[in-house]
């Protein structure tokens, strides 16, 4: 099922003309993450609010597995 995401916003940490990500939210709370270079036509990574919070926490504290 394809969800409709609203309120897409670009990461504040993106360079002006470089690759970056956008984040949007669906009515059911699902978080969508997409590549801005695709101009809304590419794939969207879908995360639950809990998964999103975990991902952001790990990024901010540099705890991502490599």
From TrEMBL:
**Name of the protein in its database record:** DUF397 domain-containing protein
Q: Which domain of life is it from?
A: Bacteria
- Annotated source species: Actinomadura miaoliensis
Please give the InterPro entries that the UniProt record associates with this protein.
DUF397
Which residues are in the DUF397 domain?
Answer: 7-60
């Amino acid at each position: 099922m394809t969800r409709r995401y609203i309120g897409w916003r670009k990461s504040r940490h993106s360079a002006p003309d470089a690759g970056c990500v956008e984040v949007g939210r669906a009515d059911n709370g699902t978080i969508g993450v997409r590549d801005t270079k695709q101009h809304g036509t590419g794939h969207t990574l879908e995360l639950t609010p809990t998964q999103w919070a975990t991902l952001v926490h790990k990024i901010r504290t540099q705890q991502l597995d490599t």
